[in-house]
Amino acid sequence: MEWMLFNGWDSLLRTLMVGGLAYVTLVVLLRVSGKRTLSKMNAFDLIVTVALGSTLATVLLTKDIALADGALAFSLLIGLQFIVTWSSVRVRWIRRLATGEPRMLLYRGEVLRAALRHAPVTEDEVRAAVRSSGIDSLSKVHAVVLETDGSFSVVRPDEGAGGSSLAGVRGLEDRREPAEPAAQGRSPGR
Questions:
Q1: In which order are the strands placed within the sheet that holds 103-107?
Q2: Average pLDDT per run of 10 along the chain, which is 190 residues long?
Q3: How crowded is residue 34: how many other Cβ atoms within 10 Å of its Cβ?
Q4: Is 0.70 topped by the overall pTM?
Q5: E strands along 52-176, which residues?
Q6: What letter does residue 1 receive in the DSSP assignment?
Q7: How far is 121 from 146, CA to CA, in rounded Å?
C-alpha cells in the first residue's frame, strides 16, 4: 500500500491558487445574493449550504475541475436558492414545500402530544424551551411553536393579544376558542 504524503509542488500551488480564488468567488456570490442566503437555516437552506461546501471542496481537491466550472456551480446553486426564495415569498404552496410550516407544540399550558409525535419532538425539549425563556410553569405559557428552522418560540400570554404572531402556525386553527356570541340577531334596544 502506497501512502501519498506529498504529490508535488504543482499540486500544492494549484490548491492554494484555486482554493483562494474559489473562496473569494463564493464570498462575492453570497454577498451579491443577499442576506437571505446567510440567514437562519431551514432544511432547504441547509441543503444549499452543504451543496456549496461540497462544491467548494470538489473544486479545491479535484484537478479535473476548473475554477470556472466551480464558479458556475456556485452561481447555479445560489441562483436556484434565489428563485425558490423569490417564489416562496409569492406562492404559499412553494413556501410550504421549501421551508415547511411552523407547528404548535403547546397551547395555553397544554402539551399537544399528537404534534410532538408528528414533529418529532419530546416533551422534555418543549419544557427546556420554556425554561430557557425564564418561565417556571407550562401553565404560564400561551404557546410553544416549533419554527421552520428547528428553533422553539415561546409565546407569553399578553392581555389584549390578538394572536397575530401565531397566524399561519399549523395546529392553531384547532385551538381557538369560539368567538363570544354576538347579540344573536337582536339589536341592543329590544
A1: 110-111, 103-107, 143-146, 152-155
A2: 68 83 82 60 75 89 87 89 86 81 89 88 92 90 87 78 68 56 42
A3: 12
A4: no
A5: 103-107, 110-111, 143-146, 152-155
A6: -
A7: 9
